[in-house]
Amino acid sequence: MSTPLVEISGLTVSFDGQPALRGIDLAVAPGEAVGMVGESGCGKSVTWLAALGLLPARARIGGRVAIGGQDLVGAPASVLERVRGGRIAMIFQDPASSLNPVHRIGRQVTEALALHRGMTGAAARAEARRLLDQVGIPDAARRLDVYPHELSGGQNQRVMIAIALAGQPELLVADEPTTALDVTIQAQILELLQSLRRETGMALVLISHDLGVVAEACERVAVMYAGRIVEEAPIARLFDTAAHPYTQGLLGALPPIDGPRRRLAAIPGGVPEPWAMPPGCAFAPRCPHRAAACDARIPDASALVEGHRAACIRAAPATALAERMPA
Amino acid sequence: MRPGGVLLEAEGLVRRYGMRRGVFGRTVDVRAVDGVSLRLERGRTLGLVGESGCGKSTTGRLVLGMETPDGGSVSFDGRPMPSPGTSAWRVLRARMQMVFQDPLGALDRRLPIAAQVVEPLDIHGIGDRASRAARVEDLLRAVGLRPDQGARYPHELSGGQRQRAVLARALATDPALLVCDEPISALDVSIQAQVMNLLVDLQEQFGTAMLFVSHDLRAVRQVSHRVAVMYLGRIVEEGEPDGVLRDPAHPYSRALVSAIPHPGRGGQRIVLQGDPPNPADRPTGCAFHPRCPVATGLCAQEAPALKPRADGRLVACHVAHGEAVAGTGLPRREAA
């Protein structure tokens, strides 16, 4: 991989002594699209909220988040303010609650332009119009003067994306950007994110609970479970040869769209609570291949091949195999 | 005459709401459900898919009599549905139950699970104290909970366990019909699979017919024997789930199917233009025509009827029936 744009190493977060993130290592290259997948509470959103200093004060954060040699963990507010929106922008699931309901759309876009690019007056308004145009809002000039409630959910999400683009970020973190939207609108937003990446060359981190969504929009995916990345691989490889039993479970839980109807391979049980984390592999209590060694210690992420890592003791022999047989 | 196997039949259901535009605006009629007919056989599942506002949930409530239709009729077990609120309707309600999306909202957080599961038995006066307690244990086991979990409060259970508890309560009166309104969409992927498996198992075990309302075509295919696609208050296509997914006939179903994200698909996705229309501002002719990639002049003038194709698939589309040659869509009318 080329020099990473953002490099997260050993990132930990705990709330009131209870761990939410238990050591995240992840690098995002310039222009790359990385998916982060996992169930609610696995830490996929917390990772980026922590990186951008957006967590409440009671969160204890450790590790390192480097962007261009600058560490963001514990960085002063002035540094974070320049990075947030300027180098890394973030959009969230519910656009209606991210936008200010009493301000016109145009004002909210120009505010971001003033903040990150020092633009004001007519120049800012013209740029805001161009941004609304770029995110596919029809009749952009007139839409500058409407309020969020006059737009649909999909259009509000487009406005959020326009605001995120205002600072010309190198990385857009999209946290479940389509979850609150209808299926046909989800398709529109995914398409928009793709075309914006092509136009601007920015990198994308797409956080989603839906492996299918990530598969469409990303080149690489990190699967998270209970505050750790358990597997990381190029998309195609993950679907063909998932190495971690949790990833295999997620894939098996997805109803197929064709072929014979089979019983879904549901993962039994539920995610462990942060105060009752198993001593070893957090997935062990739900894992069909659990062995005594699984409970001994947390398995390290081992590389199976270049770019494919899995944190499972059963994934280790495959590594040895791959090393013995050079590709 | 009792029709063979048909449990539920709805004919031309209409539900209107008055909606006021602006603070001082006049009320306009919104047709949330606009002439929906469906039939459900005993022990089978009909999936109802569509986007928000298409009237799928309202349809679910109408067939249960939780709302009174403004037009059309519902018959259950060969007899017309009694008026909501009457004692005959209340008796019948024991045989039809509803399961909602948000299990935490559907449960009373001040009562332990077992007390909530036993409630329908108390209300409908089924069994005595001892037999009710035994029945609750059986129900909890049937949905995959341990009987001792009946003593827990809703907040002490996970989302999946809560939905199991809701299902146990819905099944308490041994209903012939279960209307499930987005029963899995609030759950995590691995838990969704558990609940879908459970619904299939419960149907096998108890022979319950289900109306499965969802926006998720994958989930619908997994649990349903038939699927009806709704758009703006009407059914636009109905058929076997495999057939509809493999070869959707209505242009809207085609867009829905192509919007299912799945890996390895080469970019032939149909991305529809525009937003789902406002039910208060229903387009003329076929409601889908402003977003339809194959709409022609006829589509803007005349609403197509839902009728069978040669292979039995029900479709409401002029183009699919060969009544009009596929066009290239109509110029979009910009909303004011």
TrEMBL record, chain A:
Keyword flag ATP-binding: yes
Protein's membrane topology: Peripheral membrane protein
Molecular function terms from GO: ATP binding
ABC transporter domain sequence ranges: 6-251
Coiled-coil features, chain-numbered ranges: none
Family matches, as InterPro entries: AAA+_ATPase (IPR003593), ABC_Ni/Peptide_Import (IPR050388), ABC_transporter-like_ATP-bd (IPR003439), Oligopep_ABC_C (IPR013563), P-loop_NTPase (IPR027417)
Family note: Belongs to the ABC transporter superfamily.
Listed name of the protein: ABC transporter ATP-binding protein
From TrEMBL, chain B:
Molecular function terms from GO: ATP binding
SMART domains attached to this UniProt entry: AAA
Keyword terms: ATP-binding, Nucleotide-binding, Transport
Record domain ABC transporter: where: 8-257
Coiled-coil residue spans: none
Localization per Swiss-Prot or TrEMBL: Cell inner membrane
Claim: ATP-binding is one of the keywords in the record: yes
Pfam families linked to this entry: ABC_tran (PF00005), oligo_HPY (PF08352)
Membrane topology type: Peripheral membrane protein
PROSITE patterns named among the record's database cross-references: ABC_TRANSPORTER_1 (PS00211), ABC_TRANSPORTER_2 (PS50893)
Stored NCBIfam families: oligo_HPY (TIGR01727)
Similarity comment: family membership: Belongs to the ABC transporter superfamily.
Protein name as annotated: ATP-binding cassette domain-containing protein
Lineage, uppermost ranks: Bacteria, Pseudomonadati, Pseudomonadota, Alphaproteobacteria, Acetobacterales
